[in-house]
Amino acid sequence: MATRDTVDDPNQRPPVIAGPHEDGVGPRRRDFLNIAAVSFAGVGAATVLIPLVNQMNPSADVLALASTEVDLAKVVPGQGIKVSWRKQPVFIRNLTPKEIAEADAVPLSSLRDPQTLAERTKPGHKNWLITLGVCTHLGCVPLGISEGENRGQYGGYFCPCHGSQYDTAARIRGGPAPRNLAVPDYAFKTPTTVQIG
Amino acid sequence: MSFPWAEHYRPHHPMMRWLDEKLPLPRLVYNAVGAGYPVPRNLNYFWNFGVLAGASLAIQIVTGIILAMHYAANGLVAFDSVEHIMRDVNSGWLIRYAHMNGASFFFIVVYIHIFRGLYYGSYKAPREMVWLLGVVIFLLMMATAFMGYVLPWGQMSFWGAQVITGFFSAIPLVGEPVRQWLLGGYAPDNDALNRFFSLHYLLPFVIAAVIMLHIWALHIPGSNNPTGVAVQGPADTVPFHPYYTAKDGFGLGVFLVLFSIMLFFAPNYLGHPDNYIPANPLATPAHIVPEWYFWPFYAILRAFTFDFLFVPAKLWGVVAMFSAIALLFFLPWIDRSPVRSANYRPAYRIAFWMLVADVAILAWIGKSPAEEPYVRIGQFAAAYYFAHFLIIVPLIARFETPKPLPNSITESVLHGEAAEAAPLGLAAE
Which of A157, A171, B225, B370 is most buried, by CB atoms within 10 Å? Predict the structure, then answer.
């Protein structure tokens, strides 16, 4: 302990006792302790934040809805059905040979989001066009999956909200949407049943 | 604020200077919990509990807002939505258990905070307003905790709502209409659940606002200290930061360790298993018991088992229970002794510990079934509670000879801090 002068006036603060490094050369022990304590608290606070942020992510019951099986036996060519997957509409369309030919005839260079129909379907199931029924513009549900709905000028889907046009491979051909209708992960379990997700 | 020798806020960075001119928020913080607030140099760890109570409220608000994101306030699905939180929501079990046990820890900390005030005379002039606002906070906490307990819509939730709202039916003439108005029906149901959820979300923010007033009112006379002797000069105080930020930070660490032990190893220890049974309006649980922090008041409520003076027992019980809390409002004027700290009040110190023991006995009675010998013990303990405030404390204030007080805080520290400032005077003599 360094000695210090006695303080005459009790209302006067005692002078600061100079430590070995008070001359500003080198760190003091207290600097190390301060940094260590604040770092420790910082790591703790960051760790606490993880569950507080993670709780906003999809919960287990939402993730449990992440796959659905669909029976396609009753869907004839030219027909389409709408199923729900992850609380979103999925369009499943049985394309006619004419629609397949139309889609294959389009040169890729003319497309906004170039993809062939073969890339957007499964091998051996080229007639099954399975896409999300969510317009890539702002997320409306396009028309054209049900009988009698407007399929737009390319015979695929038509989103009336802002006029996006999709062709028979559900590729964007006109209007504001940037990308083709998304193709979800799916697999054929049997020739007539498909598991989405 | 408080003392003329408080450090002044001097922003160095040009941007902080600009901010200080437009909105002196950093200045406010500096003067409230920074170097700008001089605090007596001799505080012991009982002065940690105000900060701990604030931290508890912060934990409750953060976890509560998150729970409200996943909870559904509807009688049909409320219970299931809590189970959804426990099973499906990421870390939902952690957040709900933190909220459950956080409520208990909030009350533990606040009870210690209140008894600290009783021991060291923190309710006396010039701090009466601090104390009054504190009692308001305590009442709001009780209302909030009760309404929160109803939300999971288990058996204890439902019958708790039934019993607590039943208090209001004891009011003469208008009792039953008032109860029906509170519940929005003849028994707790969806309407009651919805309004409790709304108010349970609102009241913590009201508590936070009253806490600000509580701290504001405290910072005008400045903090009390274990000797109860007023601050007389700069030598008696140290700046809040870094001295008490460091001390409170350590205390907060200890608190969080204890909280974590409870949270991770015994999350349901303080709960009641009946609340994992969905609410059933047609079957009452064998023992309706409130959460532990209401046991003493529950015991006072049940102490009246007989009608007298033309007033029914039910009304006596309700009046007694509310009086037990309302009494605290008058304490600054009931205790006329000029000496604040019980360290220098031998008789009051005994009375204080008798009160602690009495409240502990009331808590034990409150959790016990309503049968002998508990009923009789509870009646004596409830009577003693009122006697303490209405008879014993005024008499002691009048006849007690206090020990000589130190001339100043500094002098008491220099003469041996152990004797003068030790917690509860344990090192005295």
Answer: A157
